[in-house]
Design goal:
The protein is mainly α. It has 2 domains: 59 residues, 434 Repressor (Amino-terminal Domain); 46 residues, no CATH class. Helices cover 55% and strands 7% of the residues. A hairpin with a 2-residue loop joins strand 1 and strand 2. The longest helix is centred in the last third of the chain and has 13 residues. The chain is elongated and about 55 Å long.
Length: 117
């Protein structure tokens, strides 16, 4: 999917019209239409507003990653719940995630590691 497709999907999931989203992020409804049709791209500040409003990463909006609930951190794609962990623990977190250990358990394990290092 391209940026416009991701934006349209997120907007529709929230039940917003283009003009509603335009008002929320401070652009014209025509701009939203152009974004969704991939005829124009938002500037960086607008992109950040869109990501913040929908609580997704700019990487998801820009189609760098496929999961709206993940972020790309130090080359790893991890759930956004783990984006505040120490980068030194990313490899461990990724390995646990690959073994399908629940996010809550990964956070607990990493908290214990932090306390003992």
């Amino acid at each position: 999917m391209a940026f416009g497709d991701n934006l349209k999907k997120l907007r529709q999931e929230k039940g917003l019209r283009q003009k509603d989203l335009a008002k929320i992020i401070g652009v014209s409804s025509g701009a939203i239409g152009m974004y969704e049709n991939n005829k124009r791209a938002p500037d960086f500040e607008t992109l950040k507003k869109i990501a913040k409003y929908f609580q997704v990463s700019t990487d998801y909006l820009l189609d760098i990653i496929d999961d709206p609930d993940a972020v790309k951190l130090a080359g790893y794609i991890v759930p956004k719940e783990l984006c505040d962990i120490n980068p030194n623990y990313l490899t461990i977190a990724k390995e646990m995630q690959d073994k399908e250990i629940p996010i809550e358990d990964i956070k607990k394990i990493l908290d214990v590691l932090k306390k003992h290092t």
